[in-house]
Design brief:
The chain is of the alpha+beta class. Helices cover about 25% and strands about 30% of the residues. It folds into three domains: about 220 residues, P-loop containing nucleotide triphosphate hydrolases (Rossmann fold), CATH 3.40.50.300; about 100 residues, Translation factors (Elongation Factor Tu (Ef-tu), domain 3); about 140 residues, 2-Layer Sandwich (Alpha-Beta Plaits), CATH 3.30.70. The strands form eight sheets. An eight-stranded antiparallel β-sheet has the order 28-25-27-26-30-31-29-32, covered by helices on one side. Strand 7 and strand 8 form a beta hairpin. Helix 11 crosses helix 12. The relative contact order is 0.11.
């Protein structure tokens, strides 16, 4: 038991969230670089001959320089075993990101120093707040022209409603970025620039050192002195409990691209974050990570990560105990026992078969087509069920059918698999078959990904007809006949593949119409 606790205490599982292009994938790469997992970091965009980022694996990601699916990576650093969930920041991939945040114990929020808080960051931040997980902020791209750091902190506090505590403070920005001041140690860390592909050399200088003016220059020295006085007098006090419950965010400044401030951030982060947290079951029971019985939940399913093998991988977050290769577990949703073979850990699509894993770890297991997102797996004598992961309402809809009617079988298989992964949601006309389906997505780029994947992985071309609907609502009332509802002429009744009835609306006025004219009608904007 003591041995199990030692392994689990050293684990840290976190997600990285941000708006597109804030530098999230680059920061992930630099963590891997410092952890020794990769020797040379490849940035996402840049020269044509440059390396692609390790965590971008789908062909469309490499072409566009964006993260489309959530990647899962593990590495070791300073005695810690770290699981990073690199979530898609692209505005169209929030559904996958929401789910990934359900598997993390803390979040790193990356903010572009020249842009501040952006729309996508707000959306993802709400999910973190819903779960009360600690949030650490890395203000990136200080090697470019940046906004005033005090203004950035004020914006985070006002826009997101969270207190801030700067752990370090930038000295200059752009070409004049000299390094950072560590508020705890009262030292200046100045960096020697390299091309960002290897670890940077750093020089630590005490704040009271006589040579400091020469190193950072007279103007920066005077500005730093004034800033420190203002920070010490006006900023919030550091409070560990507020950090742990997501009320206060420690803020770090740096540049992931040039490695400035990345390692100090990683070291502080590991010291301040908690080991894996307890999880609550549907019955309200709290399961501790050090419980010797194994339990886990599926938060992501990915098909065809390896083109050579038509495979499906179910990613699961281990919540308690120890996982061992070929162990027998109970799949709670079907009530059947499963032997978990070929367990893998990932660096994007590079796989490594593992023999054991512990609470806090993310593993991928072969899925013969039986798992769904939110499913619980546990030791046969434990019999618990974790709360399901919500299905978030899509915002864009299209009618989709295959061009070639002879390829109906591949079309159905492909679209069902992609829907099971959670990249799209599928709806149909009530009591009809799969001749054509209505696809709902959280962002329009997912339509392109759907077309791309059906063509490349299933050899099916599709005809897509965009629909004018903007809102979807699940009908919560049981036993209601939707045909009897009094709804506006542009509202459509559909069914999901669990046979729930839903209403598609073109505008909020139509939602109000339906609620006003159907007494007792209850509508929900996400489904458990």
């Amino acid at each position: 038991m003591e041995n199990l606790k030692q392994f689990i205490d050293k684990r840290r599982t976190f997600a990285i969230i941000s708006h597109p292009d804030a530098g999230k994938t680059t920061l992930t790469e630099k963590f891997l670089l410092y952890g020794g997992a990769i020797a040379l970091a490849g940035t996402v965009k840049g020269k044509k001959n440059s390396r692609h980022a390790v965590s971008d694996w789908m062909e469309i990601e490499k072409q566009r320089g964006i993260s489309v699916t959530s990647s899962v990576m593990q590495f070791n650093y300073d005695g810690y075993c770290i699981n990073i969930l690199d979530t898609p920041g692209h505005q169209d991939f929030s559904e996958d990101t929401y789910r990934t945040l359900m598997a993390a114990d803390s979040a790193v929020m990356v903010i572009d120093a020249s842009k501040g808080v952006e729309r996508q960051t707000r959306k993802l931040f709400k999910v973190c707040v819903m779960r009360h997980i600690p949030i650490f902020t890395f203000i990136n791209k200080m090697d470019r022209e940046a906004r005033n750091p005090f203004d950035l902190l004020e914006e985070i506090e006002n826009e997101l409603g969270i207190k801030t505590y700067p752990m370090n403070w930038p000295i200059g920005c752009g070409k004049e970025f000299k390094g950072v001041y560590d508020r705890d140690e009262k030292t200046i860390i100045s960096f020697t620039a390299n091309n960002g592909q290897r670890e940077v050399e750093k020089q630590e200088v005490d704040l009271e050192d006589d040579g400091l003016r020469d190193i950072i220059g007279n103007i920066h020295y005077e500005t730093l002195r004034d800033d420190i006085e203002l920070l010490d007098g006006a900023s919030y006090e550091f409070n560990e409990e507020e950090v742990n419950t997501g009320l206060l965010t420690p803020v770090f400044f740096g540049s992931a691209l040039t490695n400035f401030g990345v390692e100090p951030f990683l070291e502080h982060f590991l010291n301040m974050t908690q080991s894996p947290l307890p999880r609550v079951t549907c019955d309200g029971e709290t399961i501790n990570p050090t419980d010797d019985k194994f339990s886990a939940f599926v938060f992501k399913i990915q098909a065809n990560m390896n083109k050579a093998h038509r495979d499906r991988i179910a990613f699961m977050r281990i919540c308690s105990g120890k996982f061992e290769k070929n162990m027998e577990v109970l799949h709670v949703q079907t009530g059947k026992k499963q032997r978990l073979s070929q367990p893998q850990q990932m660096m994007a699509q590079e796989r490594e078969v593992i023999d054991e894993a512990y609470a806090g770890d993310i593993i991928g297991v072969f899925d013969p087509g039986i798992y769904s997102i939110g499913d619980t797996l546990c030791s046969p004598n434990l019999k618990i069920q974790y709360e399901g992961i919500p299905t978030f309402a899509p915002e864009f809809f299209a009618r989709v059918r295959q061009k070639d009617t002879l390829k109906r079988k591949q079309f159905v298989k492909g679209i069902e698999q992609i829907a099971q992964e959670g990249a799209i949601q599928m709806f149909r006309e009530p009591f009809s078959g799969m001749e054509e389906v209505i696809v709902g997505v959280v962002g329009v780029l997912q339509f392109e990904v759907l077309e791309y994947r059906l063509k490349n992985e299933y050899n099916v071309e599709i005809i897509r007809e965009d629909l004018p609907f903007q809102y979807i609502r699940w009908i919560k009332n049981e036993g209601i006949d939707p045909k009897t509802l009094n709804i506006s002429s542009n509202t459509k009744i559909v069914q999901d593949f669990k046979d729930n009835f839903l209403l598609l609306f073109c505008d909020s006025w139509s939602i109000n119409w339906a609620l006003e004219r159907n007494e007792g009608l209850e509508l929900a904007d996400f489904s458990k």
